[in-house]
Amino acid sequence: MSAYLGLHIPSSPLFNPAQFGTYMFMHADIMHLFFNMFAVFMFGRILEVYWGSKKFFIYYVATGIGAALVQIGVNYIEYYSILPQLTDQQHQIVLEKGAEALKNWQNFKDPLMGKFNGILNGTTIGASGAVFGILLAFGMLFPNTELMLIFPPIPIKAKYFVIGYGVIELLQGVANFSFDNVAHWAHLGGMVFGFILIKFWQKKGI
Asked: Does residue 47 contact residue 56 with C-beta atoms inside 8 Å?
């Protein structure tokens, strides 16, 4: 299902424009789904009461699509940085066999081909981009609301929580840990598009 409904870059043979919407409803496992939906329940229900269901739905979908656009943009930067390092033969092999290899939970042994294939045919799934948009909105609209963290168990104002989370995501995205399978740039994209949309609404008095 992820191969068809998860998000791929447009250069991938697995890409479909509908994936900009469908990827948000796919998750890696039950815990991935639980934590995303728990955040939607904790923060999203307050925003829905504040905005109304229609406006909240528009915001959720817009930040999810915005997150996808940022993630794809970053993927293309990596794509074009690796492409000149591949021979024509290596590139052709990845084009012909890469998607099928990943669908079978396999990849190329050559590190460069493997990384290129991960970018070309790798899948982004999850509602995390929209969830981070929700966190950003909560921090902007209710900045002084105190949240109680679990680790460490201390209270923190929403605005500081959101800023801290955003900085962590930025650092992890820039560091690009090889063992990290999290779409940090999608998270940041959801926050950026959320900020832009809220400011637009405020300017228009919507």
From this structure: yes
Half-sphere exposure of 105 (CA within 13 A, CB side): 0
Q: Which of 104, 65, 98 is nearest to 79 (CA)?
A: 98
pTM exceeds 0.85, yes or no: yes
Q: What whole-number distance in Å separates Cα of residue 185 and Cα of residue 191?
A: 10
Angle at CA of residue 150, ends 127 and 61, nearest 5°: 15
Residue partners of 117: CB distance under 8 A and separation at least 6 = 94, 98, 101, 102, 107, 108
pLDDT tens profile 36-76: 899 899 899 999 999 999 999 999 999 999 999 999 999 99
Report residue 63 CA to chain centroid gap.
Answer: 10
Q: What is the residue type of 161?
A: F
Task: Return the DSSP state at 205.
Answer: T
SS3 state at 157: strand
Reference 200, options 70, 58, 72; nearest CA is 58
| Distance (Å) of CA 92 to CA 88, 147, 159 | 6, 52, 48
User: Residue 174 — pLDDT band, cuts 50, 70, 90?
Assistant: low
SS (H, E, C) 23-86: HHHCCCCHHHHHHHHHHHHHHHHHHHHHHCHHHHHHHHHHHHHHHHHHHHHHHHHHHHHHHHHC
pLDDT score of 149 more than 80:
no
